[in-house]
Automatic annotation (TrEMBL):
Enzyme Commission number: 3.7.1.3
Protein name: Kynureninase
Keywords per UniProt: Hydrolase, Pyridine nucleotide biosynthesis, Pyridoxal phosphate
Pathway annotation from the record: Amino-acid degradation; L-kynurenine degradation; L-alanine and anthranilate from L-kynurenine: step 1/1; Cofactor biosynthesis; NAD(+) biosynthesis; quinolinate from L-kynurenine: step 2/3
Cofactor(s) in the UniProt record: pyridoxal 5'-phosphate
Family note: Belongs to the kynureninase family.
Reaction equation(s) it catalyzes: L-kynurenine + H2O = anthranilate + L-alanine + H(+); 3-hydroxy-L-kynurenine + H2O = 3-hydroxyanthranilate + L-alanine + H(+)
The protein's role, per its UniProt record: Catalyzes the cleavage of L-kynurenine (L-Kyn) and L-3-hydroxykynurenine (L-3OHKyn) into anthranilic acid (AA) and 3-hydroxyanthranilic acid (3-OHAA), respectively.
InterPro entries (UniProt xref): Kynureninase, PyrdxlP-dep_Trfase, PyrdxlP-dep_Trfase_major, PyrdxlP-dep_Trfase_small
Length: 419
C-alpha cells in the first residue's frame, strides 16, 4: 500500500472505505461547543454505539411492565440472556460457542479460572508473566501464589532483552525449557497493553505444553482488535473485558474461554453456584450440584441483564460487519498512522509497537524522549484524546469502527506541531 502525506489522500481513503458508514453508528464525544474530539482511546474505553440505548431501554421496559415475569416473558427472556451473546462472542475470538461465556469482570474471572487451572504442587508451582504485564494481572498471580502458600517472588518474568522493548518468543522458550519443571502456569497478555505487541498464541501454547504447564491468555487488548483464533491456538483458557475494543460500556462484563479439551472434565476443581449447575434441574432446588459442560460451567451467578444488553448491542455490530473486514481496515488505518508518524522525522519520538502488522493490533505506542505528561495535556488542549502511560509512552489506537484516515492525518499534524 502506497500512502501519501496529505489531507486529500486521507479523505480519498475515507471515501473509498466500505466501513466508513459505521462511524455514524457511534456517539463521538464532543466539547462544550459541540466540536468532536479526536478519539484515540478505544483501547481503554470503546465508544458507545447509538443502538445501545434501545437495547437497554427494551430491558428497562420489560422490567417495568413484567417484573419477575421478565425472566420468561420479556422480549428477550432474561433466563437465557447470556446465551444470546455466546455465538457472536465466540466468532470474534475464534472459539466454539461451547468454549465461551460472558460473566463477571475480568480480574474476577482470572481468579476463577486460576482456581481450576493453577493447581500447584510443592515442586511445580511457579507462574510466568510478561515483565510489563498489566498491574491487575500481576497482582492476581502474586495473590494466587500467596494464597497457595508460596511467595510473590515465585513469579517468573518474561522480559524484553536489554535495550529492547518487545518480547522475543525464543526467550520464553528458554525460560520454559530451563525451569519448566517448576512452572505450573503461563499467564500472558495476548496483546500487550503497553507496547501493543500481539504474541503468537499457538507458539506460546506449544511451549507451555511441552513441559506440562497450563497456558492462560489475557485478551483484554485483543478481543475485538485482532483475531486470536483461540480454539486453534490450543491455549487452555483465556479471559477479556468487553469495555475496550468491544464497546460495551464502562466496567462491563468479561468473556472467558475454556478450551474444548477441558469441557467435559467434571473433575476440574472449581467454585460452584446455581448458574454453573445443570440448567435442566437448576430450579428444582435442593439437588446435589451437577456441573454444566463447557465454559458455562464456570458461571456462578445469574448475570446483570442491563450490562448484557449493552454487550448485545455491540456484538450485533460486530456480527453485521465481521472481524475479517474490521481487521483489514485496521491494518490499513494503523499502517497509515505509522507512515505519518515516521514522516514527522523527529529524533524525539519512536514507535515501540512491532512493525509487522501481524504482530500488532490497531494500537501504536509512541515513546517520547524527555517527555512528561504535559505532552498529553497539550494534545488534550487540541481536542485529541490519547492515553499517557508512565514513564514516557502515549498509546494511540485508531479503531476501525469509528476512526477515519482523516482523524489519523489531523492527529499526526497536531503531534508534529507540538513536538
Ligand atoms: C483492562 C485490563 C484489565 C482490567 O481488569 P478489570 O478486572 O476489568 O478491572 C486487566 N488486565 C488487562 C491486561 C487489561 O488490559
Amino acid at each position: 500500500m502506497k500512502y501519501q502525506n496529505n489531507l486529500t489522500f486521507a479523505k480519498q481513503q475515507d471515501s473509498e472505505d466500505s466501513l466508513s458508514y459505521l462511524r455514524n453508528r457511534f456517539h463521538i464525544p464532543r466539547d462544550k461547543n459541540g466540536e468532536e474530539w479526536l478519539y484515540f482511546t478505544g483501547n481503554s474505553l470503546g465508544l458507545q454505539p447509538k443502538a445501545t440505548k434501545n437495547y437497554i431501554n427494551q430491558e428497562l421496559e420489560d422490567w417495568a411492565n413484567l417484573g419477575v415475569e421478565g425472566h420468561f416473558e420479556a422480549k428477550n427472556p432474561w433466563l437465557h440472556y447470556h446465551e444470546y451473546l455466546t455465538d457472536k462472542m465466540a466468532k470474534i475470538v475464534g472459539a466454539k460457542p461451547q468454549e465461551v461465556v460472558m460473566m463477571n469482570s475480568l480480574t474476577v474471572n482470572l481468579h476463577l479460572l486460576m482456581v481450576s487451572f493453577y493447581r500447584p504442587t510443592t515442586s511445580k508451582y511457579k507462574i510466568v508473566i510478561e515483565s510489563d504485564a498489566f498491574p491487575s494481572d500481576r497482582y492476581a498471580v502474586q495473590s494466587q501464589l500467596e494464597f497457595h502458600g508460596f511467595s510473590k517472588e515465585d513469579v517468573i518474568e518474561w522480559k524484553p532483552r536489554k535495550g529492547e522493548e518487545l518480547l522475543q518468543i525464543e526467550d520464553l522458550e528458554e525460560i520454559v525449557s530451563k525451569q519448566g519443571d517448576e512452572i505450573a502456569l503461563l499467564l500472558i497478555g495476548g496483546v500487550n497493553y503497553y507496547t501493543g505487541q500481539f504474541l503468537d498464541l499457538k507458539r506460546i501454547a506449544e511451549i507451555g505444553h511441552s513441559k506440562n504447564c497450563v497456558v492462560g491468555i489475557d485478551l483484554a487488548h485483543g478481543a475485538g482488535n485482532i483475531q486470536p483464533n483461540l480454539h486453534e491456538s490450543g491455549v487452555d483458557f483465556a479471559a477479556w473485558c468487553s469495555y475496550k475494543y468491544l464497546n460495551a460500556g464502562p466496567g462491563s462484563l468479561s468473556g472467558i474461554f475454556v478450551h474444548e479439551k477441558h469441557a467435559r472434565n467434571k473433575d476440574l476443581p472449581r467454585f460452584a453456584g446455581w448458574w454453573n449447575h445443570n440448567k435442566e434441574t437448576r430450579f428444582n432446588m435442593r439437588q446435589p450440584f451437577d456441573v454444566m459442560e463447557g465454559a458455562e460451567g464456570w458461571q456462578l451467578s445469574n448475570p446483570p441483564i442491563l450490562s448484557m444488553a449493552a454487550i448485545l448491542a455491540s456484538l450485533d455490530l460486530f456480527e453485521e460487519v465481521g472481524m475479517e473486514k474490521l481487521r483489514q481496515k485496521s491494518e490499513k488505518l494503523t499502517g497509515y498512522f505509522e507512515f505519518l508518524v515516521k514522516e514527522i522525522d523527529s529524533e524525539d519520538i519512536k514507535i515501540i509497537t512491532p512493525k509487522n502488522p501481524k504482530e500488532r493490533g490497531c494500537q501504536l505506542s509512541i515513546q517520547v524522549k524527555n517527555a512528561d505528561k504535559s505532552l498529553h495535556q497539550k494534545l488534550m488542549e487540541q481536542h485529541v484524546i490519547t492515553d499517557w502511560r508512565e514513564p514516557d509512552v502515549i498509546r494511540c489506537a485508531p479503531v476501525p469502527f469509528y476512526n477515519s484516515f482523516e482523524d489519523v492525518f489531523i492527529f499526526t499534524e497536531i503531534l508534529k506541531e507540538i513536538l
